[in-house]
From TrEMBL:
It catalyses: (sulfur carrier)-H + L-cysteine = (sulfur carrier)-SH + L-alanine. The gene is sufS. Residues 27-393 form the Aminotransferase class V domain. Its EC number is 2.8.1.7. This is cysteine desulfurase. The chain holds residues 7 to 424 of 552 of the full protein.
Length: 418
């Protein structure tokens, strides 16, 4: 079928070859973290087996190899996002990248009474750091409301811009609803009002072609583990202007030029923002993941979109299943609930059928409250997802619905806090 992705892709993922409870693993939780292809696993092993040494210090052969590979990885990953190596600061992931911008930039730039705008769709990672910064600086935090479709209220956004915020922080793709925000337009509008813009790219990087330079984002953050790379590596891409405005938020080894007992001077960006030994193997593994993404079949994004449409159509056809929101632009993620079975029971049932989906509030408590949903089940796709994964999910839901209906509980009575 044309919604079946190339089998060659799936074969490259060892974790997808296993069976769970006697069923093939239908991994539908790639928004939480993606599985890792064999070349990424091999790149990490190769580094540790052959080239392991600390970077930027010693001049001996394997240290030079480690440094070269680490800096080549920076160039590779930055290039994937349309940026240069010096515009990429490594972090542990997207959360740390946003915190870096909050503490290295926003804390220096904000004054009492300033306005900061965040969207109502945000993951806690792109909300709480701004609450903290606003509290510390006595600045105000305003929220762009979410419409019932799962899209942002663009009129409200434009009204907020007239109040001249210092920063707009918003996600490229919602991790709960899959909404693709019109970030190019929103950035251009924000810039008309001299606001800087941070885009949280955690859910976009593995599904969309992202050119940060073309988008014009001042900051663009991402997590390696959601784009087929290892955990513990991610980063922020910054414009040259922002690179110059940021102050080191952590200090110590690797980030200095000259040090005396009394004082120290900083290395050039981006190195002055990377105190301590970095995640060398992680960066190398992520560069390998980017190489993997770059060699996917040309139409892989369309294939993923077709599979999402297939999943939506199959879910919508089940009596008692309700899809949450319906943004016009959506990728890889679909939230849903059953009106017949308690979501926790349903998730457990699905696991018995080898189906891995996420249950809960998806680190977006305010969004779930705004949607009026206590919790949702969420399926999310990767380049390896195929029609069989979806068919297995549908069969499991059907079985659950036909089974023990006495465990059905009204979703409204549910106070799970996941
Ligand atoms: N933002 C979004 C939209 C996310 O989906 C996530 C991960 N669930 C994050 C930020 C945080 O990423 P990490 O946990 O890798 O730091």
């Amino acid at each position: 079928s044309d919604v079946n992705l190339n089998k060659n892709i799936r074969h490259q993922f060892p974790a997808l070859q296993q069976r769970i409870n006697g069923q093939p693993l239908a991994y539908l939780d790639s928004a939480a973290t993606s599985q890792k292809p064999a070349p990424v696993l091999a790149a990490i092993q190769h580094f540790y087996r052959r080239d392991n040494a600390n970077v930027h210090r010693a001049g001996y052969t394997i240290a030079a190899r480690a440094t070269e590979q680490f800096e080549q990885a920076r160039a590779k990953v930055a290039g994937y996002f349309g940026m240069s190596a010096r515009n990429l600061v490594w972090t542990r992931g997207c959360t740390e990248a946003i915190n870096f911008v909050a503490y290295s930039w926003a804390l220096q730039q904000l004054n009492a009474g300033d306005l900061l705008v965040v969207s109502g769709l945000e993951h806690h990672a792109n909300l709480i750091p701004w609450q903290q910064v606003c509290r510390a600086r006595n600045a105000e935090l305003a929220i762009i409301p979410v419409l019932a479709t799962g899209e942002l209220d663009q009129q409200a956004f434009q009204q907020l811009l007239q109040r001249r915020p210092k920063l707009v922080a918003l996600t490229h793709v919602s991790n709960v609803l899959g909404t693709v925000n019109p970030v190019a337009n929103m950035i251009a509008l924000a810039h008309q009002y001299d606001a800087k813009v941070l885009i949280d790219g955690a859910q976009a990087a593995a599904h969309l072609t992202v050119d940060v330079a073309e988008l014009g984002a001042d900051f663009y953050t991402f997590s390696g583990h959601k784009m087929y790379g290892p955990t513990g590596i991610g980063g922020v891409l910054l414009s040259n202007d922002m690179l110059n405005q940021c102050q080191p938020w952590q200090t110590g080894g690797e980030m200095v030029e000259a040090v005396s007992y009394d004082t120290a001077s900083w290395a050039q960006p981006p190195h002055c923002f990377e105190a301590g030994t970095p995640n060398i193997a992680g960066a190398i593994g992520l560069a390998s993941a980017v190489a993997f993404l770059e060699q996917l079949p040309e139409d892989w994004q369309q294939q993923e979109a077709a599979l999402l449409a297939y999943a939506q159509q199959r879910l919508a056809a089940i009596d008692g299943i309700r899809l949450i929101a319906a943004p016009a632009e959506q990728v890889a993620v679909q939230s849903f609930v059953s009106d017949r079975i308690h979501p926790q029971d349903l998730a457990q049932y699905l696991d018995q059928f080898g189906v891995a989906v996420r249950l809960g509030k998806h680190c977006a408590h305010p969004l779930l409250a705004a949607l009026g949903e206590p919790v949702t089940l969420r399926l999310s796709l990767g380049c390896y997802s195929n029609q069989q994964d979806i068919d297995q999910l549908i069969a499991a839901i059907d079985a659950a619905h036909q089974g023990d209906t006495e465990t059905a509980v009204s979703a409204e009575n549910n106070h799970l806090d996941l």
